[in-house]
Structures are given as C-alpha cells and as structure tokens.
Design the sequence.
C-alpha cells in the first residue's frame, strides 16, 4: 500500500478508511508510510483524515515514529504544516508504553532538528518517562559529542523564558547534574546545568562503577596522553563544582582515587 501513491489514492477514492488495519497488521497505514519514508503518501493520508495521534501497539504515535530517525525532520515539518492548514491538533505530550514523549524520543535518537521543532512548538521539557527521566536526564547521560543537544535545549528554554526542572530526580534518585558528572564526556553539560540553577548542596558524587564505564572507552587507545582524558575531564568537573561551593568529602575521595589510578594518572609522577 505504501509503495504506490496511485493505489493509495484509488483506495481512498473508493471510500477506504485511511485508519483501517489490515487483516494481518496492527500498524495503521500512516505509520507504515512513515516507517518507509513515503512523504507523498504521508501527505495524502493526512489530507484525507488519517489520525495523526493514533498510537500503535507499543504506544508510538506518528510523531514518535518521525522522531526516531535523525533524517526524518522533513516529515516533522510537513506534519505540522499540514495540521496547521487543516486546523488539527498534534499531541506533543503523547506517551508511548515506556512513558516517552516525542521529545524524549527525539533526544534519545539525537534528532536535534526535531527536538528543536518540538520545543519551539511548546513541548513540555519537564515530563518524565516511566524511569522518572526527563529529556534533560537523557541529554546529560553523555550520548552527544560536543554537548550540542544540551546547548540547543537551554538556548530554546532561555529564548522562551521557560522553567526547566534542573534538579528533578529520576527513579534512581539521580539529577541531570549527577548524570552529567557520571558521563564525564559532558563537562560542558555540567557548566550549563550549574548556570541554570543546578543544586550542588545535595549533590552526591557518582560511584566508581559509573565512572569506570567512561574509562573503558579509552583503554584501547595507544596514545598515553589520550588515556588521561577521563581523569582530566573529571578534574575539570571537580573544579566547576568547587566554584559553585561544592567541597569534596571523604566519601567522594574514596570514589575518585581508584578512578584516577585506573586512568594511570599518577603512574609517571616523579617526587623530587
């Protein structure tokens, strides 16, 4: 059906329900067209009454599906353009079976253009999924090289004068700041969070187990200098936290020192 525009057009002309499910399918036609990136068919279905908020068996709406693929931003723009012309409403805060909104889905898949579109269209940045994670928690888990998603997120939040819950805790009790520190590759995220009100008074340093995950990504690097990167970033984070009043306690030191040793930070030190 989704492979031939003329066939779909003919079926619609014959009165076929655009939201019907096939005998062996639980996937709505609009979802199929989106999965196959059939832009013309998507537009045809939308203009003929396809339910743009209809969820599939896993709770994904068409907007969720669009947000799953980085190259699908053109479909997102088209969806909002058509719905505006037809005066139809897109549910920005629809949740799938694990509680993710389209914004969560865009962030998880590093889909910056659609994350920007959703935020500018009014998506709530503070909604949590079933794990208690807001989009900001996910951003701060260190999936994004250069922290571009975090910069974009806060840029739009600031432009719209929105309030974002930077100290929200997920079901592990972790704040976005704790995730940013644990990821180590997201030193910029730490600064962004601190500049937007992240609380250091109740901050608890991540355990060595979480820090080790980042060290392992550098273990196969031949360059001795590059192997120091995790330790250097950890030192930078400690400095950022210290400037905001955080003081390392004995428990923190017990977590950090084994980490530094694994980074071989002290291996080549010479004591005169």
Sequence:
């Amino acid at each position: 059906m989704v492979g031939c525009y003329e066939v779909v057009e003919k079926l619609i002309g014959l009165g076929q329900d655009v939201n019907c499910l096939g005998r062996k399918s639980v996937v709505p036609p609009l979802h199929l067209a989106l999965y196959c990136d059939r832009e013309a068919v998507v537009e045809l279905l939308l203009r003929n009454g396809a339910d743009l908020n209809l969820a599939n068996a896993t709770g994904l709406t068409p907007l969720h599906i669009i947000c799953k693929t980085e190259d699908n931003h053109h479909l997102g723009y088209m969806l909002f353009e058509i719905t505006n012309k037809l005066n139809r409403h897109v549910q920005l805060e629809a949740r799938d079976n694990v509680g993710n909104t389209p914004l969560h889905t865009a962030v998880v898949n590093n889909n910056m253009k659609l994350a920007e579109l959703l935020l500018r269209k009014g998506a709530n940045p503070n909604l949590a999924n079933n794990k208690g994670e807001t989009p900001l928690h996910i951003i701060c888990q260190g999936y994004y090289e250069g922290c571009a998603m975090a910069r974009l997120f806060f840029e739009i939040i600031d432009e719209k004068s929105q309030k974002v819950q930077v100290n929200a805790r997920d079901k592990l009790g972790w704040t976005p700041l704790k995730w940013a520190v644990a990821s180590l590759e997201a030193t910029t995220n730490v600064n962004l969070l601190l500049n937007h009100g992240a609380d250091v008074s109740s901050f608890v340093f991540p355990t060595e187990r979480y820090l080790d995950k980042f060290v392992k990504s550098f273990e196969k690097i031949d360059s001795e200098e590059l192997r120091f990167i995790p330790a250097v970033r950890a030192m930078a984070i400690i400095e950022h936290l210290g400037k905001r009043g955080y003081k390392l306690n004995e428990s923190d030191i017990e977590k950090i020192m084994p980490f530094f040793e694994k980074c071989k930070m002290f291996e080549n030190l010479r004591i005169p």
In short: The radius of gyration is 23 Å. Residues 1-106 form a domain with the Serine Threonine Protein Phosphatase 5, Tetratricopeptide repeat fold (CATH 1.25.40.20). The mean pLDDT is 86.
